[in-house]
Amino acid sequence: MKRTIFINHSTCKKCMLCVEVCPNKILTKNEVGEKAYRPERVETCFKCGQCMAVCDTKSVLIDGLSYETDFFELPHQYEQDAIKKSFYDLIITRRAIRNFKNKPVPRELLEKIVEAISFAPPSFPPLRTNIIVVQNTELIRQALPFMINFYERLLKMMKNVIIRFFIRKEVGNKKFKMMQYHLVPLLKSRIPALKEGTEDTLTRNAPAIILFLADKNGEDINQDISIAATYGVLSAHSLGLGGSIMDIIPPAINKDKVLKNMFGIPDEQEVITSMIVGYSKYKYQRGIKRNLKEIRWI
């Protein structure tokens, strides 16, 4: 078995922090009080980097990871009180933005959002989330009529009892209920204005879209993508932009070959969710209080 974990005992301070943070408890303390690894658990190392990130003296080495290229030093002002304040200021001032200025988003800001997305924690490393950043606004406008046609066809299919049966079988009961009681009523009200070109309630005239993809036959990473998309909208807000997660865009792309080709979606992949992003057209003066359906303390 190939050894993937190395300890530099000459620089190790024996603080044992790496032993504590290892999620699979691969590292341990041996009989002479030094750090060691459990040979039978080495195979469970998925190179999350926790042990290297916590080591003050850079004494833990994982094969395939480098302190120089795979890590960065955290800022000195890394203090809990400041983080708490800035985080709550961020989340209470964020709104889902669906009205944008006719202004392109600079490439460097989109790159910052992508970087933030890369920090989203995976349920199980390594990261399997794929994204496509669509900064070509004209391409988004060209795609809109195909999305409208897709949803117009879907609306007609949902009127047919037999076709509804097969749609329910394909998407499952929970998603079908969402389509029947939420999506269909929205489409009925939106399709006329969408076809007339007086409204865009699908892409929302956004100057940029980020598509989140996953392999069709791969592991279920939908939860990872949901977290990644949340990181995306929060980072957009922190950069002075607005964004919103749009689950209405992926089905149209996944089911329409023209749209898949337009956005360069490989056959083996599918779009799980999407995020529209741009400069907010309006400034909000206050937040809206939300109440959870139920809170139970045990």
Could you explain how this protein is built, in words?
The chain is of the alpha+beta class and 298 residues long. The chain has three domains: 5-70, 2-Layer Sandwich (Alpha-Beta Plaits), CATH 3.30.70; 94-138 and 201-278, NADH Oxidase, CATH 3.40.109.10; 141-196, no CATH class. Helix content is 42%, strand content 13%. The protein contains eleven helices and eight strands. It has helices spanning 17-21, 50-54, 67-70, 80-93, 107-118, 137-157, 161-171, 173-196, 222-238, 249-255, 257-262, and strands at 5-7, 27-29, 35-37, 60-62, 130-134, 208-215, 242-245, 269-278. The strands form three sheets. Strands 5-6-8-7 form a four-stranded antiparallel sheet, with helices on both faces. The longest helix has 24 residues, at 173-196. The mean pLDDT is 90.
Topology pattern, helix = H, strand = E: EHEEHEHHHEHHHEHEHHE
Helix-and-strand structural type? alpha+beta
Rounded to an integer, what's the Rg over CA atoms? 24 Å
Assigned CATH superfamily of the largest domain: NADH Oxidase
- Strand ordering within the main sheet: 5-6-8-7
Strand content: 5-15%
The number of helical runs is: 11
State the CATH topology of the largest domain.
Answer: NADH Oxidase
Question: What is the second-level CATH architecture of the largest domain?
Answer: 3-Layer(aba) Sandwich
Largest sheet descriptor: 4 strands, antiparallel
Task: Report the strand count.
Answer: 8
Overall shape: it is elongated
The N- and C-terminal alpha carbons lie at a distance of 46 Å
Whole-number count of domains: 3
Mean pLDDT: 90
Low-pLDDT regions: none
Share in helix: 40-55%
Report the CATH C-level class of the largest domain: Alpha Beta
